[in-house]
């Protein structure tokens, strides 16, 4: 009887101990607050990660994740390199610290671009941060470098490229003036019609336009004159004059042509040799005061510029007043 009672007591004691131990174990497993405090004391990514794994359904998981992000951010700031912040941003895509990291990364990249101070470094920065607060000073720095490069090259292509990129630059006015001068020099060197026409198409209002027009007109006149010489007709000459009224190659006078015999002769007024004796006729044209021209009487009659009437003779038969005119208005090539 005594042995049976002892065995029963031992069994019950064992059961109580087991229950207490299980209760302790369960209590330790369901104490996220305590575990979170331990993770905070360790303050490492490993400690917070283990907490999250152990208490996945706890309301403290969000805080644990935030602490992991904060620690990673502090590590990136401590390193203060492009690589450290890029690594942070690859891991975390949202949150206030992500925005801070982006701004700090931008500042580091802006500083590095400034240290290099090359066209490539500024172009790379602007490609990555086109809308940043540092974009404007970056563009100004890039503009200065490209301007210096264009001035050094001092050619049309370089200046055109600069203006295409920076039409509102503070150096744009200087570049346009220099470009105009270079393109004028190029046109003058070519010294042909396409070159001058091309220059005037781009710089019609420039200070050099007047001289370019003068040179172009000279080229056009030379071209048209050579074409006229090949045709060698009165129509071609008249057409040339209409297109080049200031030319000194030919004159076209329009008006009523009058002819007056200037040398007398001894002959019968009915003589068939009246216009074959080498006589000269002075031509004048109405509406063109001051114009006179001497031509052979035979030519004047052949051109239908004069007709003759004998006014009288001296005692020895010398003609003293032989005049005539063609009453039609005509154009006279000179």
Describe this structure in words.
By secondary structure, the protein is an alpha+beta fold. 62% of the residues lie in helices and 10% in strands. Among the domains are: 135-213, no CATH class; 251-266 and 274-333, no CATH class. It has helices at residues 2-29, 32-42, 45-54, 61-79, 82-91, 96-116, 119-128, 135-153, 156-165, 172-190, 193-202, 209-231, 234-243, 297-302; strands spanning 252-261, 280-285, 293-296, 309-310, 322-333. Strands 3-2-1-5-4 form a 5-stranded antiparallel sheet. Helix 2 runs antiparallel to helix 3 (45-54) and helix 4 runs parallel beside helix 6 (96-116).
In short:
The protein has helices spanning 2-29, 32-42, 45-54, 61-79, 82-91, 96-116, 119-128, 135-153, 156-165, 172-190, 193-202, 209-231, 234-243, 297-302, and strands at residues 252-261, 280-285, 293-296, 309-310, 322-333. With 334 residues, it is an alpha+beta fold. Among the domains are: 135-213, no CATH class; 251-266 and 274-333, no CATH class.
What's the average pLDDT?
78
Largest sheet geometry: 5 strands, antiparallel
Order of strands, main sheet, comes to 3-2-1-5-4
Q: Tell me the radius of gyration.
A: 53 Å
The total of beta strands comes to 5
Helix content: 55-70%
Query: What structural class results from the helix and strand content?
Result: alpha+beta
What is the string of helix and strand elements? HHHHHHHHHHHHHEEEHEE
Strand content: 5-15%
Q: What's the total helix number?
A: 14
How does the overall form come out from the CA principal axes?
Answer: rod-shaped
Which stretches of 5+ consecutive residues score pLDDT under 50?
Answer: 1-5, 22-27, 262-276, 307-332
Cα distance spanning the termini: 164 Å
